[in-house]
Amino acid sequence: MSLDSLWQPITVGRMDLPHRLAMAPMTRSRANADGTPGALAAEYYGQRASLGLIISEGTQPSDDGQGYLNTPGIYTDAHIAGWRETADAIHAGGGYLFIQLMHVGRMSHPDNTPHHRQPVAPSAIAPGVDMFTPTGMQPAPEPRAIATDEIADVIAEFVTAAKAAVEAGADGVEIHAANGYVGHQFLAPNANVRDDQYGGSVENRARFVIEVSKAVADAIGADRTGIRISPGMPLGGLDEGSVEEVREQYLYLVRELAKLDLVYLNLHHGGDDVLLKEIRKAWPNTLLVLRYGRTREQIADEINAGLADIAPLGQFALANPDVVERLKTGAPFNEADPATFYGGDEKGYTDYPTLDESDDEAAA
Predict the structure, then answer these.
(1) Where is this region: Disordered (predicted)?
(2) Global pTM value
(3) What is the CATH number of domain 4-363?
(4) Are 225 and 177 in contact (CB under 8 A)?
(5) Is 181 labeled as catalytic in the residue annotation?
(6) Which residues are registered as beta bridge partners of 16?
(7) At what angle do helices 202-220 and 243-258 cross, to 10 degrees?
């Protein structure tokens, strides 16, 4: 199908975007030990500013929110200063920055966090997966169930982080309620066996995500608040039940979130096209849709079908800082190197060549 629809401009909240592409959030694990993003992060994101909307890697809102080594935070003065460099670099290139707020819940290990405490989650149920730690792969331990009267504190962490993101110069934040992390854990019946108002029914399991979204939107503006969901994705040991149960849970959630007038919904689409069509009907604002395994030729498929407004790019953006130009001109893509996805230095991070650099190398 044609890619022509990608080149139509769109206004999303306070952002005037030149096309229908965006940079998807991707963990890169290159922050300093204290969670401060460094100069390399500013270079990496700044290189990709032509994508317009840059959604950052998952960024913890607190010590409890960290799950992996060298992921960035956005809750200290040092974090704010580091992210300001990145925001400035993106803005200098004509792009916009949304920082993804990722509290990992049970997807953590004490060896990976500043305080070395047991992870916290909706219920005391281990995910049954191994995690990379400073001493190698270890099982993710059983988390401590968050007490009912502590949930307000967790929500407040998201609010503090959202305010810090705006202070750092970000144009908004994306609440991560997907991919096996804490918001997704509250939604999943095999990770949430609570018997209070945050567990049991479809409405109760959605309550945490809705309350976080409302609190953040109230704090920084709904036009600065996006959210990511991944219905039915079996990540981090989660099982959300049958197709029908997943549809019931997420259509309720999306309809409730729609009442908050959030600026966008970022859907990590797992292949249930019936649910995608229903979400499209239920969501009044901008819809981003990312689907695993898309080829270059398929990037605009959901937009062409009227099922999405923006197509975020993952590995294509990671390996091609000038991916927009490559798509427009039909130029070949660089191949992403999985060995350098997580951790390390500039190799596989800021050293992927642009077309101009490739031409210079060829001419040398």
Answers:
(1) 335-364
(2) 0.97
(3) 3.20.20.70
(4) no
(5) yes
(6) 11
(7) 30
